[in-house]
Amino acid sequence: MSEQLRKLTSLSRSCFDLAAADSGRESAMVKGGYLKMLLNGRCSFDCAYCGICRRENAPAFAPKELADLICSLWKENRITGLFLSTGIPRDCGESMDDLIEAATLMRRGGFTGYLHLKVVPGALRTDINEAARLANRISINLEAVSKDRLSEIASVKNYESDLLRRHAWVAEAAPGRHTTQIVVGAADETDGEILSFMHREYQRFAPASIYYSGLIPLPGTPLAGAKPANPARMRSLYAVDALVRDYGYSPDETTAALDEEGMLLPGDPKINAAGSVRIDPSSATREELIRVPGIGPKAAGQVISMRSAGRAVTEKMLREAGVVMKRAGAYLVVGGRVQERIG
Ligand code: SF4
């Protein structure tokens, strides 16, 4: 293996460490042709969950060196896209400049594949705009749900100026093409705090998605002895995220899925949020229908168009529309009759 490929492999692994699992959505190295890596594996920051902070002798690419390598991998059809982040060895401006220079040279060198650039904390607005111009997607990691929670796991980043202000610039520069991420389980935050964060995020910045990275306690980090994030917790958070982003659930509705300690109740958050509601599908609005467990946006749309076409709302019709009666039955009143859970 050439020295450059060895370095690339190491920086791709570091990126995986950095993301503290990245919720399993994107894994390290090349998956389906999508290479995920760091430009520079050195960082002077002190994020407690991060496996690369203050690592001695970590590898780094010069922007042109990486651009040439990516362009040749692209021309050889060995990659289809690139996620590029970086550690911050000295200052944020310099690291952002390097990312932009690398991306500019890649584009000039003929790399037309999908490019996701990570914006570093404290980046200049002009650099964020340039990153948005060069990349298909940009993102900035908020890492924690609030200023106080961030201060428990990172002392250098300023939540308001380095992250939130930059997040607003990212959202303006790349509407509909930006994402963010938090690490779950690193700062003892409750699910209730995460849900409040989630609602604020979607209302204020409208990210295409929020990534919830479950903490993996890495050896050699201050959180090495912490408990890893529970996979069931991560699944529930993603389920609530879908309810907020795709179904428009309000803060009050998602609060109904929490217990007294502010943690999500076991089981499906949609069922927990539904409580004992009963609706009549012959008159229910789309918003009412999609809140019923077993009825998704597609089935709700089908029920409404079949109703508009004059079809009587019966159990058979609901099944034809795609309603999962086994789940939905207990929440429906069909033809004046309360449905039982159908096994
Ligand atoms: S800023 Fe924090 S999370 Fe990012 S590379 Fe540096 S130490 Fe790791």
What can you see in these coordinates?
The protein folds into two domains: 3-229, TIM Barrel, CATH 3.20.20.70; 276-338. It contains 14 helices and nine strands. The chain is an alpha/beta fold and 343 residues long. The protein has helices spanning 3-18, 63-75, 92-108, 125-134, 147-153, 159-173, 191-204, 231-247, 251-255, 269-274, 286-290, 297-308, 315-321, 325-328; strands spanning 29-31, 34-38, 81-85, 114-118, 137-143, 178-184, 209-214, 333-334, 337-338. Helix 3 (92-108) packs parallel to helix 4 (125-134), helix 4 (125-134) crosses helix 6 (159-173) and helix 7 runs parallel beside helix 8 (231-247). It binds iron/sulfur cluster (SF4). Iron/sulfur cluster binds at residues 18, 43, 45, 47, 50, 52-53, 87-88.
Short recap of the structure:
With 343 residues, the chain is of the alpha/beta class.
Give structural attributes:
7-stranded mixed sheet, TIM Barrel, alpha/beta, 9 strands, 14 helices, binds iron/sulfur cluster, two-stranded antiparallel ribbon, 343 residues, elongated, 2 domains
Write the layout of secondary structure elements.
Layout: H1 3-18, E1 29-31, E2 34-38, H2 63-75, E3 81-85, H3 92-108, E4 114-118, H4 125-134, E5 137-143, H5 147-153, H6 159-173, E6 178-184, H7 191-204, E7 209-214, H8 231-247, H9 251-255, H10 269-274, H11 286-290, H12 297-308, H13 315-321, H14 325-328, E8 333-334, E9 337-338
Parallel strand pairs: 2-3, 3-4, 4-5, 5-6, 6-7
Antiparallel strand pairs: 1-2, 8-9
